[in-house]
Design brief:
The complex is a heterodimer of chains A (302) and B (257).
Chain A: E1 2-5, E2 10-13, H1 14-31, H2 36-45, H3 50-74, H4 80-107, H5 110-141, E3 160-163, E4 168-171, H6 173-189, H7 194-204, H8 209-234, H9 240-261, H10 266-289, E5 296-300
Antiparallel strand pairs in A: 1-2, 3-4
Chain B: H1 2-16, H2 19-23, E1 35-39, E2 43-46, E3 53-61, E4 71-77, E5 80-91, E6 94-107, E7 110-114, H3 118-121, H4 124-130, H5 134-140, H6 147-159, E8 163-165, E9 171-173, E10 177-184, E11 191-201, E12 204-217, H7 219-230, H8 232-253
Parallel strand pairs in B: 2-12, 7-8
Antiparallel strand pairs in B: 1-3, 3-10, 4-7, 4-11, 5-6, 9-10, 11-12
Helix pairs in contact in B: 4-5, 5-6, 7-8
Chain lengths: 302, 257
């Protein structure tokens, strides 16, 4: 069933969009990530203009995260205090990232920069996740006692705060830095940043897996709302028809994903998410190395 | 349809008159226009079900059309904008955007149709002047001299069906009635379009008619695009709220699922 998208100015099969929404929503509920890192490349692949794909992807991420956030909130898996710290820093970071994006556009290398960022960030994050979770799984098999708490220089920093839900008493500086850095990356890559946030919370902040997913959804929800608003104001490329179609499939998928996620162990979830992130990175890397179909690209004059 | 039927009726009348009647000089032949053309519809409505459209161009001429007679050329042009064509080059093993060429006033849409290949109908200066043929169109665009970029522009625009150059698309019936369909893809840009209909006789354009039509968004599509353009803050807030609402609805509906 073809449907005309008013902002993208093109006709797309509505069932294709519903299907993409369902698949990405399912992953988003399962892993607690917005799914933007999958959705945006997929939309570009089916011919949606890149700015519309990025902006509407952020809008879809918002809806999917709200759905996942409510599901996690009911299970008591959201550390709202940690979420607020991450969020405030994340908003500042995305404002800074937007400025960097403007600079890249002036240099005429946005496409390349975005692809490289994807490959480097997704590749690194994916590899770390797979390695760590495999180790955790092996450790469990050998029935070795896991180290629950590690003290490092991070614990010597001032401005300590108690995060009850996560059973942490740490300085707010590391989470603020994490939120800021991810804010920058999410502005450039046009994603909510959940796939980076989840490992950062686990490995850098030492949060338990149970609260990471809910808390990351909390942060992603508000960051993607901010990105949606900024995109609507600055580029006018948010396509609400596209967003709502993706969401219709997405909210259903997110609920199934969240239900399934509770059955998986934390390490296994992380290993699967890591593999998924790695495969997206590999696909994008192949695109950069492969001789393109057309040696020329066309775009509006800047 | 009505004018078309009337023309056809007149045409049939002329064909079936006895030869003697034609030869008689007494009633002066009505001096009609050499070319009369019309569009099937004055505007193309883009609504949520729009998947592209064909624009019908039809008309009649005062003399016979065909290989030995006159020929008709139909040219459709869309709104113009500036575009950049970039060449990809391999640097350090990866493909990056290399040299760029900027073209100004590039028509978003270009469709050329004729009763016979245009190259055989008109000489190059005439074709160049009227932009008949994609090579002629791009040759006249302000932009770089490098022909590779012009060829790339043509190929990229043809790939998206925004530029079509299928000669022999103009059909002729009854010798003097012609009709053509200009295909508008679903990615067609809303705006003001023109259709030029040209009558060619002895390698010269002897009559020309310019018809205009609009591609307009209607209904929900038009309202969404309008709000997005004129009230971006309101639109952005609406997008945020709608998406959040959809997410909340989903979690309510699937609560027990």
């Amino acid at each position: 069933m073809p449907i005309y998208l008013p902002i993208a100015e093109m006709s797309v099969d509505a069932f294709l969009l519903l299907g993409i929404g369902l698949g990405v929503g399912w992953l988003s509920g399962l892993f607690g990530v917005g799914g933007g890192f999958l959705l945006t490349p997929l939309l570009i692949l089916i011919g949606i203009p890149a700015p519309v794909a990025v902006a509407s992807g952020a809008n879809q991420t918002l809806g999917a995260s709200v759905s996942g956030l409510i599901a996690q909130w009911r299970r008591g898996n959201v550390d709202a205090r940690m979420g607020m710290v991450l969020l405030v820093a994340g908003l500042a970071g995305s404002a800074a990232g937007t400025q960097f994006f403007v600079l890249l556009r002036r240099l005429g290398q946005v496409d390349l920069a975005v692809s490289l960022f994807y490959v480097v960030v997704l590749g690194t994050v994916g590899m770390l996740m797979v390695r760590e979770s495999l180790r955790a799984i092996l450790r469990r098999r050998r029935a070795l006692p896991a180290r629950t708490h590690q003290h490092s220089w991070l614990h010597g920093l001032p401005l300590k705060m108690r995060f009850r839900k996560s059973r942490l008493y740490i300085s707010i500086i590391p989470p603020a830095l994490v939120g800021f850095g991810i804010g920058i990356l999410s502005a450039i890559m046009g994603v909510g940043g959940g796939f980076m946030l989840v490992p950062a919370m686990i490995y850098l902040l030492g949060m338990p897996t149970t609260t990471t997913i809910g808390t990351s959804l909390f942060q992603v929800t508000f960051v993607s709302a901010n990105v949606t608003l900024l995109q609507a104001l600055q580029t006018g490329s948010v396509d609400i028809v596209l967003t709502l179609l993706l969401l219709t499939g997405g909210v259903a998928g997110a609920q199934f994903g969240a239900a399934m996620g509770t059955k998986l162990r934390g390490e296994e979830t992380r290993a699967l998410l890591g593999l998924l992130v790695l495969s997206v990175a590999a696909g994008l890397l192949v695109n950069l190395l492969q001789t393109p179909d057309s040696l020329y690209v066309i775009g509006p004059a800047t | 349809m009505l004018p078309r039927l009337l023309v056809r009726a007149g045409l049939l009348l002329a064909l079936f008159l006895p030869p003697g009647a034609m030869a008689q000089p007494a009633p002066a032949p009505q001096a009609g226009p050499a070319l009369a053309a019309e569009l099937g519809q004055p505007r193309i409505a883009v609504d949520t079900a729009f998947t592209g459209a064909d624009l019908l161009v039809f008309g009649a001429t005062d003399r016979l059309l065909g290989p030995d007679g006159d020929n008709v050329i139909v040219l459709g042009l869309g709104p113009t904008r500036d575009v950049t064509v970039r060449r990809r080059v391999k640097r350090l093993g990866i493909w990056v955007n290399g040299p760029a060429a900027r073209f100004r006033e590039v028509p978003d849409y270009y469709a050329l149709a004729s009763t016979a290949p245009v190259a055989g109908l008109l000489d190059e200066p005439a074709r160049r002047e009227r932009r008949l043929g994609l090579d002629m169109l791009t040759a006249r665009l302000p932009g770089p001299r490098d022909p590779a970029f012009r060829e790339a522009l043509i190929r990229l625009k043809q790939d998206t069906h925004q530029w079509v150059e299928e000669e022999n698309m103009v059909g002729v019936s009854g010798g003097r009635l012609f009709h053509a369909r200009l295909p508008l893809p679903s990615t067609v840009t809303p705006g003001d379009y023109v259709v030029q209909v040209m009558l060619v006789r002895d390698h010269r354009i002897i009559a020309r008619q310019e018809l205009s039509f609009g591609v307009d968004r209607v209904g929900a599509t038009a309202r969404i695009a309008d709000v997005s353009r004129h009230e971006p803050l309101l639109y952005g807030l609406a997008c945020v709220l709608l998406a959040a609402l959809a997410g909340w609805l989903g979690s309510v509906i699937f609560r027990r699922g």
